[in-house]
Amino acid sequence: MLKPCSFCFGPATLQRICYRTIMDFEYQETEIEKRFQTEVRNWLINHIPQSISEQTTVDNFDAEIPTYTENVRKALGDQGWLSPALQKEMGGANLGPTQLRILRSELEKFGLEWLEEDSAPVISWALMNAGTKEQKTKYLQDIASGSITVWYNSIQPGATQDLDAIGISATRDGDDFILNGLARFNGNQGSPDYLWTLALTKPIDSSKASITSFLVPSYLEGIAIQNDSSLVAGTNRYVNFEKVRVPAFNLIGNEGDGWHLLQAALKSNTWALDNPAAEQVNELIEYAYKTIRNGKSAADEPVLQQMLVEAFLDCSVARILSLRNRWMIETGQPITYQNAQLSLLTKRASLKLARVVRDVMGAYALLDDNDPRAPSNGTFERQQRQSITEQNPMAGPDLHSGIIAKEIGITLGPESENRE
User: Fold this and answer.
1) 149 phi and psi angles, rounded to 5 deg
2) What is the CATH number of the domain that holds 366?
């Protein structure tokens, strides 16, 4: 199908041949998918309080908002939408990749992407595949329903096992383990009920340390969750363990399997495959069209025009790669370097987009959602901070480059690491 790009309907200077006039890469939804989209949208309209849907970030919650969000989480859990890929009998919705994309898209339209319980499908997968019968009975339904929340160690999918990066040690003491140390966890706002924790252990029959995972109740004595002082609030928190006694019942899988279990669980999670920058790029283009400088639209300025086109193309390529990954998962093909490739592209594009935003918006890009003059309710101010945190050496482009190199069988030397 031939379809002109939206740019072609802009100023005359943009009326040039665009790759989308040659081929339409838009995903065409089936009638069944459209009905599911309508079902999700109608449910959100009827069940999400306006006070929550107007919150564009987790940085600036009103005092009453956390109480409402707890109720919304439970309502989403009743639909099976906190662990949407999990089987229905376990509290999920048994959604496929396409339905997951639709659900995520609709949540984002309501400003609810921060309500996505990323830890729920991850820990649910681990329990389904490595948990005991008693653990599945005790935890799965409550996790999927939103009755309990779980944070997990901040480890990137595909990262190489590194014993030195594990900040917590676990020592046998009778039938229990004693945990000590400091680690960073992924988690949304509020406090967790459980912490899926990786810790260094030394099995009795081995002289070497290994990594073991525990599902640790957060109320245990000796656990202290540090205040969030990161650039982007609500995403990562440090937790300190001081002589925390954890029953052996809370060990997930076998001793020494912790790293591989977490990596497999992260790799199984298809919940967050979409490109989050798509809506931001569209809003930025609209802002440029509507902003008048020196008597003409900002989108008519040649330099800004080129920047916007490049941001649009980066976003489009990421969308195509996301569709490829989803197709591979849906058809049962193994994922090797593909997720790392998409993450590498989006993180580099995010930093590039931040520069484009500043050039197009100027100082307005730094206004948050507390300022009525902020474009898009402060979305771009948060994007500025997010783009910096995504370059973290422990989880940024260098890590993904290494994963790609490993999967395709090449070695990254000093020259190739520095070459752009």
Assistant:
1) -115, 150
2) 1.20.140.10
Q: Which phi and psi (to 5°) does residue 289 adopt?
A: -65, -40
The number of distinct structural domains making up the chain is 3
The answer as to whether 51 is a domain residue is yes
C-alpha of 412 from chain center = 27
Q: What is the pLDDT of residue 248?
A: 93
Integer Cα distance of 18 and 310 in angstroms: 12
- Which tens digit of pLDDT belongs to each residue from 181-231? 999 887 765 678 999 999 999 765 566 778 999 999 999 999 998 876 666
Smallest CA-to-CA distance from 235 within 113, 107, 353 is with 113
For residue 247, the cross-strand partners are: 176
Query: Measured between alpha carbons, how far apart are the two ends of the chain, in Å?
Result: 35
- Copy the structure tokens of residue 278: 């798509």
pLDDT tens across 70-120, in order? 777 788 888 888 888 778 888 888 888 778 878 887 887 776 766 555 678
Do the domain assignments include residue 95? yes
* Beta pairing class for 150-153 and 194-201: parallel
Is position 373 within any domain?
yes
**Tokens representing residue 81 in the block:** 């939408």
**pLDDT of 15 higher than 50:** no
Residue 413 lies in a domain: yes
